[in-house]
Amino acid sequence: MIKNKKILIVGAGGFIGGHLVKRLLNNNNFIVAVDLKPKEYWFQDYESVENHYSLDMKEISNCRKVTKDIDYVFNMACNMGGMGFIENNKAECMQSVLINTNLLISCKENKIKRYFFSSSACAYNKSKQQEVFIEGLKEDDAYPADPEDGYGWEKLFSERMCRHFMEDYGISVRVARYHNIYGPYGTFDGGREKAPAALCRKVFNARKNNESKIEVWGDGMQTRSFLYIDDCIEGTLKLFESNYSEPVNIGSDEQVSINQMIEIIEDISQTKKLERIYKLDKPKGVRGRSSNNDLVKKVLNWSFKVQLKDGLKKTYNWISEEMSKQGSNLSRFTKS
Ligand code: GDC
User: Which residue, judged by its Cα, is nearest atom 15 of ligand 1?
Assistant: First the structure.
């Protein structure tokens, strides 16, 4: 367990970053938390932390400032979202390359002891994800390179940047490829939400408004594997403390279709079966995706624990509480 360290978490106002701050707060660690977002949009915000609100880490002067006297850096920051966002904002997504690059340069100058980069399953070659049910993606499947356009290219490029900073300058790096992380204290409206949160919101709304239909993007047969946030944080910390410096999957191999996920949410919310209006012109991404966990089991002895139905229950409950508070407005975490 990491203790007595000075730790910089970039993207701390976001979903995974916020959970990581909470987890690392103990054990006499000193946390420096940074996010581009103003204070009111942070999902989690702790007083015992040195918080830097509205700080743009695309600027190298900011990176230099906050990496001074730091032991460890977690880069959880990028301009991102679910399919609806990344498919329509490729240039925005690619500019996150500046965050990782400027941070690495600053970490080298300030002699940081270890650097973590949050990569994504979007780094994998698209041609290996064209069937509904696929074998889980192995780490080698990222090459030959043909990742998700925009967002995935940024992740793959930044992974390589980490690798070369390790090879050329001796910086210790760890790289996780996250597979659709979900859970409480994440985005559920406003356009950046991923499928689990979006579908919890839609089912909640249908129930509340006594409607019998929901809109689903695509034909609902596309598949994914989803990882609950607590498992994500455990896997991340195990990887960080390991000796393994190549990219590794942090995901679940419980592959489900979007239709199956909707059924689980209907069960959780005790909603009768809703009619699904399939919107085939909405962003769909790859046809099938799941994580192969052979390597992560071997090198970290780690495996996900939370089944989708259990993680979705906690997520649905949190989203429904938030939505009950906000009435018909956008969530308090969402910049309209
Ligand atoms: O958005 P996402 O969770 O991203 O979508 C999964 C699938 O669910 C897509 O095929 C999408 O069309 C379908 N879907 C159906 N209805 C809806 O209402 C909806 N909203 C959304 N958002 N999707 C719906 C993600 C990236 C992330 C991250 C992960 C890594 O891709 O968007 O940024 O990197 O991958 O695994 P997904 O899984 O395609």
Answer: 217
Q: Which is it for the CA torsion 312, 315, 320, 326, positive or negative?
A: negative
Cβ(84) – ligand 1 distance below 6 Å: yes
- Quickly tell me which residue has 């279709």 as its tokens: 257
Q: Which atom of ligand 1 is nearest to the CA of 155?
A: 34
Provide the domain limits for residue 129.
6-183+227-253+291-307
- Does residue 18 have its Cβ closer than 6 Å to ligand 1? no
Residue 261 within any structural domain of the chain: no
Is residue 93 a part of any domain in this protein? yes
| Domain count of the fold of the chain | 1
Query: 25 lies in a domain?
Result: yes
Question: What CATH number does the domain containing 61 carry?
Answer: 3.40.50.720
Digitized pLDDT (tens) for each residue of the chain, 336 residues in all = 899 999 999 999 999 999 999 999 989 999 999 999 999 999 999 999 999 999 999 999 999 999 999 999 999 999 999 999 999 999 999 999 999 999 999 999 999 999 999 999 999 999 999 999 999 999 999 999 999 999 999 999 999 999 999 999 999 999 999 999 999 999 999 999 999 999 999 999 999 999 999 999 999 999 999 999 999 999 999 999 999 999 999 999 999 999 999 999 999 999 999 999 999 999 999 999 999 999 999 999 999 999 999 999 999 999 999 999 987 678 888 875
* Atom number of ligand 1 nearest to Cα 85: 32
318 domain-assigned: no
Kindly state if the Cβ of 218 falls inside 6 Å of ligand 1: yes
Q: CA-CA distances (angstroms) from residue 297 to 235, 291, 292, 303?
A: 10, 12, 10, 6
